[in-house]
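Hi U.,

Before I forget, here's the chain from the pilot set. I'm dumping it here mostly so it's searchable later in email.
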Amino acid sequence: MPPGRSAIVAIRVKPGASRTRAGGSYDGPHGPALIVAVQAPAVDGRATEAARRALASALDIPAARVSLKTGAAARDKLFVISDPPSDLDSRVARLRDES
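Structure:
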């Protein structure tokens, strides 16, 4: 994608996990979602922030380019990726294929 564009990534957050990781697929309300497990509890937005950072890390992009679009108080969230890498779809698909 050209610079200045954005992309949406659907995720399913699993708060309170033993370790933070991104991998696996969940058929959520926004379509196939990437599962992101985080150690942070689902309290005061801590799990959402941890999921934002974990998603950025898993996609190998700066966390500043990832922002929440919808789902602040839900497990199913949509994140906006600013200036996504050209292979974003394949990166997300590869992570969704992991279990």
